Amino acid sequence: MNYTWDWGILLREPYWGWLWSGLGWTLLISLGSWTLALVVGIGAGVARTMPTRFLPAVASVYIQVFRNIPPLVQLFLWYFVFPEIAPESVGLWIKRELPQPEFVTAIVGIGLFAGARVAEQVRAGVAAVGLHLMPAALATGLRPLQAYRLIMLPLGLRAIFGPLTSEFLITVKMSSISLTIGMLELTAQSRHVENYTFHGLEAFAVATVVYLLVGLAVTALMRALDRRFGAAAYRRAAP
User: Fold this and answer.
1) How far is CA 178 from CA 22, 78, 205, 217, in A?
2) DSSP run (H or E) holding 14
3) pLDDT of 205
4) How far apart (Å, rounded) are the C-alpha atoms in residues 136 and 185?
5) What is the Cα–Cα distance from 216 to 208, expressed in whole angstroms?
6) Buried (b) or exposed (e) across 45-74, using 16+ Cβ within 10 A?
7) Contact at 8 Å (CB) between 143 and 75?
């Protein structure tokens, strides 16, 4: 293989700027998707543990649908299909007026997929740690929603910091599939550099290292939060 390595080409403009721009979009997609996943996942996970029939059924349908359809297919459905089947005014707004439709679609598609996975983690955490505390909480005069908000959900979230770390890492890595709908995140920009310079090995090597560093940073952050707020902090505070 007569391949001539040239690492310096990545430091030239516009290729250096492309990679930095791709990293920025990767981080924005990851953070946006994870925020949506947490909000939706916590809501659906709590709904799954409610003592009624309607809310657990609705949450279960959401989880089963979004967790079992590949995220790439979901992105295509949100980006290509949904604007066509939505009411005409909504479809036209999405296609013509929505700012950064690829970015928004990536957050929605990846976030809802990850939210279904987070919901199951939250359900398991609440069921394992908090459900047996419900009678005691109600006996003190708390209403069911207050018991969830003040006791069961905080304890359940503390118990699942480890699994949530894995889900966050998966969300970061899934940001790369947004290139299929035209999002110029890190992987797409690496391909862009390859197409212009024919030095794709260098570009993808740098992208690999960047993904690794982002993953290690996420792991370190979640471990710090676990020590401060998670199960480890709870064990230290227990008598």
Assistant:
1) 11, 12, 20, 22
2) none
3) 95
4) 49
5) 12
6) bbbbbeeeeebbeebeebbeebbeeebbeb
7) no
Structure tokens of 129? 């740690």
Per the listing, tokens 């930095």 go with 20
- H or E element, residue 63: helix 54-68
Asked whether the beta carbons of 48 and 54 are under 8 A apart, the reply is no
Torsion angles phi and psi, residue 132, rounded to 5: -70, -10
| DSSP track, 191-224 | HHHHHHHS-HHHHHHHHHHHHHHHHHHHHHHHHH
Class of domain 28-185: mainly alpha
Residues in the chain: 239
Residue extents of the structural domains in the chain: 28-185
- Nearest Cα to Cα of residue 154 among 137, 167, 139: 137
Average pLDDT along the chain, 239 residues, taken 10 residues at a time: 83 92 96 96 92 91 95 95 93 89 95 95 85 79 83 84 89 94 94 91 95 94 81 54
The tokens of 209 are what?
Answer: 């290292």
* pTM, rounded to two decimals: 0.90
